[in-house]
Design a protein that fits this description.
The chain has 730 residues and is of the alpha+beta class. It contains 25 helices and 14 strands.
């Protein structure tokens, strides 16, 4: 035997509303009949035949039954959920039994001890007692309510079995009124009104619907094809016999046909109706089966498309890992992609050529990436100064915890226990539970420091060499002038190298600040969602897990886009990008970029239009042109409203090819257009759906266009859209 602890939370809303309507109807009719009895109201003559006011005992029993069902249906737990319905059921049993006894059990009017006492006389006197049929029905309903109050599945099945004959008897009352069968309207010479019959049917219907998990009701409440068919056929099974019976009685009463002809017509009508019902059932099954097939086909197509996208995204990330591995001199090898989205994003931290840790205010390391563990080890439970330096108290030279004092980022240099020099970047960070943390990023600058020392030594040696050359060339003006010219050239080259080194340092600072700022939100989202999955995955349904997986994917894509733009920008800053032009089809390249951004555009229902001729070819660096188009299209999607349009076009001119990306988005003011391509402008604003970016996309576009020898400009109107145009000479 099993109990339904969560009942009625598992009942659909439409069934709940039906139960409340039925119970409200019972309560309304009972109160109205009590009012008629208390105040002596009289009913209109048109209602006199149908509405026979209930006796006090019947109204009392109906109210008690309705209240009991309300308590059983609406209360989930508590002592009242069981005790009140049980008491009410006992009262109904006693009332029904006394009514049967007062009638003598066979419908004969009995006057006896039950009408002697005032209270009993009020309920069971020949003038006040309810009909014998009502007494039997309330006797059964009392037992049924007691069984339901026990909140046991087996008892609920028994209750619905007992309710079946009660429902037949209750349905018989309004049926007699519908068919005008006068001989059946009065049971044992006591008329049972239509209001009483409707109340009996409503209370039975409410009891059935209050427990949809029984053997009888699970057929009608099931979401399977059988349940759907049962719910569709049930009203017709009730209505058709009534209509056919009414048709036969009317025909015989008016003399249209005799009883034998009526039987024949009933047989023919039943046969025709059942044929129609069978056809409706078969048609419904065919429609349901067709819908299921269409849904299966759509699911298979969606699965195939999703599998293709997953494979492409996986390949893109593997290529990115390989490129990063080459750029950081092979320090970190590309790791195999794992099935879990959570492990894939954590892997981004693991492969970075810098150490990243999270510190608590009490000096514990809650997270460390692979670079940190390989350099310094992993000692869970210990404080940083304990397992790094074997100290018993914090280091005097440590500047990390200054971040907690002013809640501002802090930069300093630190010599680790391995003897390497690290450039430290500390940032205030808030954990998913709201507790403060410090995110520290350390970059090994030992090689750079050694290069700076060698540069100082080289400068000293150069000065010495210049002095020696000067002394050697004093004998010859010509040789002296030549040496001075060479020295001047060398110094200019040295200044350029020094200037380039300073620019690289500034680029490094920008690179690190952007990483800390733009990767902070994705990592916060990833940590929060993965902790939520780790704590509640066993309790979550597949749909909720799928939604969280989509959020994880969005965060990963956001982080991936940031890294890709930062990589393009940083490589352009240090001169690692090679210009390799070639001739290729422009439309295929544009269509490929539109396809890559299809998911982002479909989320906002944006229509992407490519009007470029299919045979147009262009001579340019394919990778750079890919990056230019990707950033311009991504910006257009970002600042275009839902259901907007984006159009890509190209035209051949004397100076080359003009390529245009036009959107129907938010547009820009004159001031925004002027500041758009300024080098020092790193400001970025959120998109129409609050999308964020690094602010590097347009700078990458400008640099790559200028590498081709072209130019880029924008035409824009605020609140109407923007058009970015760039020229590729050829």
């Amino acid at each position: 035997m099993s109990n339904l602890k969560d009942f009625p939370g598992n009942i659909p809303d439409r069934i709940k509303y039906t139960v409340w309507i039925c119970l409200g109807l019972v309560v309304t009719i009972s109160i109205l009949d009590l009012a008629i009895w208390l105040f002596g109201w009289s009913l209109p003559e048109s209602l006199g035949y149908y509405w026979v006011p209930m006796n006090v005992s019947a109204s009392f029993c109906f109210l008690l039954s309705a209240i009991s069902v309300i308590i059983i249906f609406s209360m989930r737990k508590g002592s009242l959920k069981k005790s009140v319905p049980v008491i009410a059921g006992v009262v109904l049993n006693i009332t029904g039994a006394l009514t049967i006894i007062s009638w003598g059990g066979n419908g004969e009017v009995q006057d006896g001890f039950l009408s002697n006492a005032f209270f009993l006389n009020l309920l069971f006197s020949p003038e006040q007692r309810m009909s014998l049929l009502s007494g039997y029905i309330f006797l059964f309903i009392g037992v049924i309510i007691i069984l339901l109050a026990l909140n046991n599945h087996s008892f609920a099945n028994i209750a619905h079995i007992l309710l079946f004959p009660v429902s037949i008897a209750a349905y018989l009352i309004p049926l007699c009124y519908l068919l005008d069968i006068y001989s059946m309207r009065d049971f044992f010479n006591v008329p049972v009104g239509l209001n009483t019959g409707v109340s009996f049917v409503a209370i039975c219907f409410a009891i059935y619907l209050s427990r949809t998990d029984t053997w009888f009701m699970e057929v009608y409440s099931s979401k399977s094809i059988g349940g759907i068919m049962a719910r569709r056929l049930f009203p017709w099974i009730i209505i058709i016999p009534v209509l056919i019976g009414r048709f036969r009685i009317y025909g015989e009463q008016t003399g249209v046909f005799d009883s034998i002809t009526g039987v024949l017509l009933v047989a023919i009508t039943y046969t025709f109706c059942f044929i129609i019902l069978i056809w409706i059932t078969a048609k419904s099954l065919i429609l349901i089966d067709n819908k299921r097939k269409i849904a299966d086909e759509a699911l298979q197509r969606s699965y195939a498309d999703l599998e293709s996208r997953v494979k492409k995204r996986t390949q893109d990330l593997e290529n990115m890992n390989r490129i990063l591995g080459e750029e950081i001199r092979g320090r970190i090898k590309a790791e195999n992609m794992v099935a879990s989205e959570r492990e894939r994003n954590v892997g981004l931290l693991e492969i970075m050529p810098v150490y990243i840790i999270l510190l608590t205010p009490d000096h514990h390391v809650t997270y460390s990436n692979k670079f940190f563990r390989e350099r310094f080890g992993n000692a869970p439970g210990k404080k940083c100064y304990q397992f790094l330096f074997g100290r018993s108290e914090p280091c005097e030279v440590c500047e990390t915890y200054k971040v907690l004092n002013d809640n501002m980022p802090h930069t300093w240099e630190w010599t680790g226990p391995d003897g390497h020099i690290y450039s430290i970047f500390d940032f205030p960070y808030t954990d998913s539970d709201g507790s403060p943390l410090i995110m520290e990023m350390g970059i090994d600058i030992t090689s750079m420091k050694e290069a700076e020392a060698k540069l100082v030594t080289l400068n000293a040696e150069l000065e010495q060499r210049v002095k020696e050359r000067t002394r050697d060339l004093e004998t010859s003006n010509y040789r002296l002038n030549q040496e001075l010219i060479e020295r001047h050239k060398f110094e200019e080259s040295l200044k350029k190298s020094e200037s380039r080194l300073k620019e690289m340092n500034v680029a490094k600072d920008k690179f690190l600040n952007i990483i800390a700022h733009d990767l902070k939100n994705p990592f916060t989202c990833l940590i929060g969602i993965t902790e939520l999955l780790n704590s509640n995955i066993d309790k979550m349904d597949p749909e909720s897990i799928k939604e969280l997986a989509m959020v994880l994917n969005d965060s990963a894509q956001s982080g991936f886009e940031v890294l890709r733009n930062l990589l393009d920008w940083s490589r352009s800053q240090v001169g690692l990008i090679k210009y390799s032009p070639e001739k290729f089809n422009l439309k295929k390249l544009i269509d490929g970029e539109i396809s890559d951004l299809k998911l982002s555009s479909e989320k906002k229902h944006i229509r992407m239009i490519d009007t470029v001729n299919s045979d147009m070819e262009i001579f340019a660096d394919k990778n750079m042109l890919n990056a230019i188009l990707r950033n311009l299209l991504a910006n257009a999607i970002k600042f275009t409203h839902n259901s907007g349009t984006i159009e890509v076009s190209a035209s051949v001119r004397d100076k080359g090819v003009d390529i245009s990306v036009r959107d129907s988005g938010v547009g820009m003011s004159e001031d925004q257009i002027i500041r758009l391509f300024m080098p020092e402008n790193l400001d970025t604003k959120p998109g129409t759906n609050m999308e964020h970016g690094t602010g590097l996309g347009l700078k990458i576009c400008k640099e790559f266009v200028e590498i081709h020898g072209g130019s880029i400009w924008v035409n824009s109107t605020l609140d109407k859209g923007s058009e970015f145009i760039f020229t590729i000479p050829g």
